[in-house]
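Page 47, continued from p. 46.
Same chain as before, 188 aa.
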Amino acid sequence: MAKRKPASRPAVKTAVRKKWTGLGSAAKPSARKTIKSKGRVSTAGKTTTKTATKSKSKARPKQRIAISHHREEAFKADGLRAYAKYRDLGIADATHGLARAHVIRLQGPCNPDEVSKLHYHDVEFQMVYVLKGWVKTYMEGEGETLMQQGSAWTQPPRIRHMILDYSDDVELLEVILPAEFKTVELTA
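Result:
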């Protein structure tokens, strides 16, 4: 067999692209629509990652890297709930307030008189992941749900919810957008 000369990068990319776009294209048409880039033009007239709409909206400051290593002394009782300790992961500072992420340790044993208060958060996004233990929640439209280690859930903006019970060792990872938000406690 004759040795083949290695193809240049552009030739390899073209070959891969042709192979990929050719998969099954003769058998049936693709259900996907081609979406054209909206005004992504550089000064040289070639496409770039800058959008033309950026000038219309306020540009966000450049995000920084946030690294947070586990330290017991990082857990502080300075958050939303008096019965919890929070370990801030530095996301709010790194994103200039775009998002917040923290590990929450709910302090046991659970006292329903203190914990079980119906409320909502005025947020754009909220996600919780159970790192350790378990927590029983109530969410409007969903009812009571037991979340255990490895469980995750999202809470739509302004959904009414509350914690009903939790294990003494529960730890939660919570991600919220934006970093600063309002919590409204409701009367049952």
